[in-house]
Records
---
Amino acid sequence: MTHLKQRWIPSLLILVSALATSAGTVAQQRELRVLSDRTDQGTLRPILDAFEARSGAKVIGVFMDQGLVNRLESRPTEADIVITKDAELLDIAAQRGLLDPIKSAKISASIPPEFMDPAGRFFVDAYRARIIFYSKARVKPGELSTYEDLASPKWKGRICLRSGSHDYNLALFGQFFASFGEAKARQVISGIRDNLARTPKGNDREQARAIFEGKCDVALMNTYYHPLMAENPEQKAWAEAVGVYFPNQATTGTFIMRSAAGLTKATDNRDLATALLEFIASKEGQQLMVDRTKQYSVLRDVSAHPLMVKLGAEQGLVDGRFKIDFVPLDKMAGKREEVIKFVNEIRFDAER
Ligand SMILES: [Fe+2]
């Protein structure tokens, strides 16, 4: 027992001094404010918690599902950092002069250039693909091929989708415009509308549920919903009823959706804000992001989540790696407005 005691004493001393230090920090604890459109604290919180633990600062979140750019415009210094599910929103915010350049050698060194805003005001912190989820019972993977094919008459009455005006679909359709060209994009989006099985409604997971319930056969959803549904007891059956298919692998590639983080105009906590951004861009932060959100890391040496690695195996993808149709964000500038207009014009969300 004696040797045990001897071992414990130094550890105890370290613990006591650590407590003393943290007590000292509490007295002058700094607060960092984060504005985000992540729907709940769940996905972001572990990263913020880890940062709180290492910095001693308290991170306060302002969470909102929609209207992030407007919020930033009306209260430009409410938060120090803005984190979004949709990098396009930060591109818009940057163009409106609502973001400041991030000055960090660590971030410049770690984030690949294609994921960095050219003016350094934000960076892509992770991405996912928006792909086809299909009924394992009623669709064979061999019947699937491209996004464009979803406009063909063979899918009449068989597609489920959330609102055409939701950010996810705006980001996808915007990439159709940028990659396929305007005429083709209009034709594909109109064709998908013609093939809808029901009025667009619900979130992404609701579309998998509709496939499970036999209401439709295919849907467009983000990759991470498959593992997220699989680990949710109430949604497990939905996940089991659907397969996932990465479209356009033999042609132009699958479209991705980027999430991003940037600096606001608030300057009081600039050092701390930069430190949080550096943490998000670090290997440790990226690992938390991958584990928690099941997105793909922007760092090449952080591999996909084990549950994501399996996706696409039926179509011959190896290690979950897939061909991306990489549309630079600046190519999507202005596309969002064009898509919103078009989606309304063709009454994408009309009752049916
Ligand atoms: Fe989502």
---
Amino acid sequence: MMDQAGPKPTRLLHHEDTGLLAFEATVTAVRPLEHGCEIALDRTAFYTESGGQPADHGVLAGRPVLGLRHEGCVVWHAVTEGGLVPGDVVTGFIDAARRRDHMQQHTGQHILSQAFVREGARNTRGFHLGAEESTIDLDGDKPPSDLCESVATAANDCVLSDRLIRIHEVPREELDRYPLRRDPGAEHEILRLIEIEGWDWSACGGTHAQRTGEVGAIHLLGVEKVRGLWRVRFLAGGRTLRYLSRAHRVLDDTARAHSLRWDGLAEAARAWTAEIAELTREVRRLRAERGEKEAERLFLATKPGSGGVRLLGIWLEDFSDGGRGPLRGDAGPDELRALASRFVASGTAVVLAGCSEGEREVWVAARSAAWTEAAGPPPHAGEWLREWLATRGGKGGGTETFAQGGAPRAMPTRSGSASPGPAPPGSASRDSSTPGLAAPRSDGPGEDAGIFLQKRMSKGLGAAD
Ligand SMILES: [Zn+2]
């Protein structure tokens, strides 16, 4: 057991030599954990999470190190098994790839923060070293893209000039002799200063490279506003190489698929976007036109009922493109609206028409604005639609003459004679319509809508008597 004063302070070997990846130390205290134990050492090369940099991984006395914790000046190492006692001499090995990666990101941060000061007078207020990318938080206005470019150039120049990085232990009262980038606060009597020769001075307890060349390329990923500061996302070293290689592979594959060079992709994408917008407008216009033509055909094919009123319940679906490209899917709402409007404009009529749009059903209800007296009181399209959609778990509304709404998509129904999948051209389900136009269904939601109109119409007329 430890004495009342606790174990002696742990000497931090990584503060003296960040290249030290194996060390020997003496166990000064051991305390049990639920699983395994926590060990204090007289000295350690393991870095404990601090100042935005995560802890090292590695092995101590043959056991994986599960966690590291500072308690005052003592570093506690959590390991899997017990069996160690004070006085044991143990060996520690630091996970070299992880340490090297963290040194690249962390030293990259010092270089980058100084570049933002030099190029744009922006101060770093925070730093985070993440598993995928790292960030610094800057004060001031949003750094414009040309500033980010000049910062990236300056930072990479600093890397390529392979400057020496020195560590200095300096008493607090001598701090004003050094051109520190940032006030270190009043926490310690002796401060550890990191000097990047001819570039940057800052107080920091993290692990850093010994020369800037070890940092490798620094790459800025983007800027976003977080809690009033400008967060710059960046990569350094091996992460930059892996990222750029992956990004280039994606660009190159995409470009090849379109028989383009990768640097022509952005221009091509702009052209595609404009073309798609143009095609979409054209498709909507054609759908509306198709809906109007279909309305004219259906009007002639529908026999007038009581009072000379034509009732049409219809479900539009299954056009010829099979769900691909800008023409994808079934008849769109544009077509539905055009069909309903044209149908009721042709004489005294009521329409209840639906189609699918993604996972939803779209429904419109319309009745002729010029309603003949002989047909009785005119129906209210908005109210009828609300009633209809209530039966399908949906909602909608509108005026007396036109209303629109939606409902969750019911399971699609297929006529018994249709084969599974899209119906081939000229199949039974299309026989009643002109090729390429909406086929009135003999089953499913269209028929249900027709029955609803019939019932509602007789109820409405009955109430008026
Ligand atoms: Zn640092």
